[in-house]
Amino acid sequence: MTHTIKTAAKVLWDYHCIYDPLEKADVIVGLGSYDLRVAKRAAELYLEGLAPILLFSGKGGSDTEGLISCASVAEAFANQAIECGVPEKAIIIEPRGTNIGEKITFSRDLLAPGAISAILVSNPHTQHRVQATVARQWPEAKAMTTAPLTSFEDQPTESFPFEKLVHEMVGDLSRILEYPAMGYQLAQAVPLEVIEAYDYLIAQGIDGSFDAKKA
């Protein structure tokens, strides 16, 4: 297949976006990021009655600087959920996690030993990495992964434009490939067409380096 940056990015997007079928769970875990659409989606799922508890996890980092005024991105997400109609008493805040692994393990520890089923809400293009991480770090939980119902074309924003999105998807695929050997994630099958798109993007200088500090 002859690629352009956009077509190669779309191949990665389609791989990363998995959207598990959802059913009622013990808790909804919203993984904090630069995108408040994740908080809104988590709130929607709570208001639909899919879980009695909504936990937001995340400290924040370079990708949230200037976007939130709260002490943590988890608190900013909680405020957004309250604006959407979620009662404050239903929300738990985990303000320490700085990467997906920490957000999942800190949430797991905060909920232990109660929650055994969880809906994890992340950015659309982070779902596959979340699934791989929770399978390794929280294997006892029945975990379902979902995200805002955002299209590839609509995902970029003014504060997180297309170029950053593509870098992030390349970086996340690098982690999917490398982290199982480190014990951070469960190994995932990666189709050849995805590897080819990934290699093409790296050859264009899009290697995920803009978020190199994000584990």
Describe the structure.
- By secondary structure, the chain is of the alpha/beta class.
- It is built from seven helices and five strands, in the order H-E-H-E-H-E-H-E-H-E-H-H.
- Helix 4 crosses helix 5.
- The radius of gyration is 16 Å and the shape is globular.
- Residues 211-215 have low confidence and may be disordered.
Proportion of strand residues: 5-15%
> Structural class of the helices, strands and pairings?
alpha/beta
String of helices and strands: HEHEHEHEHEHH
CATH topology of the largest domain: Rossmann fold
CATH architecture of the largest domain: 3-Layer(aba) Sandwich
Count of DSSP H/I helices: 7
CA-based shape: globular
Query: What's the number of extended β-strand segments?
Result: 5
**Level-1 CATH class name of the largest domain:** Alpha Beta
Q: What do we call the CATH homologous superfamily of the largest domain?
A: HUPs
Q: Outline the biggest β-sheet.
A: 5 strands, parallel
Taking all residues together, what is the mean pLDDT?
A: 93
Note poorly predicted spans: 211-215
Domains, number? 2
Quick tags:
single chain; 215 residues; alpha/beta; Rossmann fold; 2 domains; five-stranded parallel β-sheet; 7 helices; 5 strands; 42% helix; disordered C terminus
Show the helix and strand layout.
Blueprint: H1 5-16, E1 27-31, H2 37-47, E2 54-57, H3 73-83, E3 91-94, H4 100-111, E4 117-121, H5 127-137, E5 142-146, H6 162-182, H7 192-203
Parallel strand pairs: 1-2, 1-4, 2-3, 4-5
Helix pairs in contact: 1-6, 1-7, 2-3, 4-5
